[in-house]
């Protein structure tokens, strides 16, 4: 992997570190946190962490022992990519997707370990419960009443461009080392985002190469760096990333494993805001300017404004989806949208 400009990371603020005495303390932190924080050693007692401290081979053997006998999806990049799983010059993906048993994927990682032409090999967002037996029971964070999605990320030296996710995220380094470079939500204009429908992994990513930023091409990125925070995590450490914060993630060791937990504080039946943005691109963005201004006013009125002013003139019990949504009214609205989109 090509070395990053050390000045880029040396000049960034560090993600604040906090101490957590027990599960109750972690629960309180997660309930109130609006900014990132690091907890050193949060999962240092995991058997997976202990296996990785012995060797990468021991960590791989531990994972294979718990893996189900099913194909895993893996991304395989090119040796010249420097570990960056991204677009090529033609804006196509610079990696290919394959499916294989976990033991076979790990055997290929072992064969390429240390080779000058080693390729980045990456298993992204693998559902822990679906693909492993007993792994979660022996290696997990108690998140109380939350019902998170538990995912595991496994790979060699890789670089994943800055992106964001809707859920809150607690990411735990189990094997190897990871570097997280974080940007607040409002820095999206300064990150020079790529397409939202043609992406490496489902979310729009920054087009800036964080290791070698081209400030002539991306001048506003200097402003993003003024607000950035960085954290280098070892095995056993964890980082909390608030919803919609941008994060660039690097695997710094020859073999890296991360387990993360995603959860939302909103009801499961609520829609995804990204779907609303995509629909607005389809239905509003290319309207004449005067009509776009009208729809901006309509969104301000119905979505971002004072809800009581919107419905005060409608009798109670007759406001339908203009009242606070329930699972039932959300279901009716979703069915209405599906019918409209299918026409």
TrEMBL record:
JmjC domain sequence ranges: 98-278
Pfam families per record: Cupin_8
The protein's name: JmjC domain-containing protein
Organism: Sphingomonas jejuensis
Taxonomic lineage from the root: Bacteria, Pseudomonadati, Pseudomonadota, Alphaproteobacteria, Sphingomonadales
């Amino acid at each position: 992997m090509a070395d990053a400009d050390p000045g880029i990371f040396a000049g960034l603020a560090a993600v604040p570190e906090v101490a957590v005495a027990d599960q109750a303390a972690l629960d309180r932190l997660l309930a109130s946190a609006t900014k990132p924080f690091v907890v050193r050693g949060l999962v240092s007692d995991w058997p997976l962490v202990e296996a990785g401290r012995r060797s990468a081979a021991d960590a791989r053997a531990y994972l294979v022992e718990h893996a189900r006998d099913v194909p895993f999806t893996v991304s395989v990049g090119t040796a010249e990519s420097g570990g960056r799983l991204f677009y090529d010059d033609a804006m196509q993906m610079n990696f290919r997707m394959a499916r294989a048993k976990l033991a076979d994927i790990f055997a290929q990682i072992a064969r390429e370990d240390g080779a000058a032409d080693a390729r980045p090999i990456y298993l992204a967002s693998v559902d822990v419960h679906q693909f492993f037996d007993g792994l979660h029971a022996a290696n997990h964070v108690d998140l109380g009443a939350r019902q998170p999605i538990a995912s595991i990320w496994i790979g060699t030296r890789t670089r994943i461009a800055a992106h964001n996710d809707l859920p809150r995220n607690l990411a735990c380094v189990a094997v190897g080392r990871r570097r997280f470079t974080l940007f607040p939500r409002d820095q999206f204009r300064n990150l020079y985002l790529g397409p939202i429908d043609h992406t490496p992994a489902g979310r729009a990513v920054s087009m800036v190469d964080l290791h070698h930023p081209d400030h002539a091409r991306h001048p506003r990125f200097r402003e993003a760096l003024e607000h950035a925070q960085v954290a280098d995590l070892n095995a056993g450490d964890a980082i909390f990333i608030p919803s919609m914060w941008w994060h660039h993630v690097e695997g710094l060791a020859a073999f890296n494993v991360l387990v993360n937990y995603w959860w939302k504080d909103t009801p499961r039946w609520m829609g995804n805001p990204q779907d609303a943005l995509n629909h607005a691109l389809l239905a509003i963005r290319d309207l004449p300017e005067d009509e776009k201004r009208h729809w901006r006013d309509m969104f301000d009125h119905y979505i971002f404004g004072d809800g009581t002013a919107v419905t005060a003139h409608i009798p109670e019990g007759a406001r339908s989806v203009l009242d606070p949504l329930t699972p039932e009214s959300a279901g009716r609205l979703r069915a209405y949208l599906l019918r409209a989109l299918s026409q």
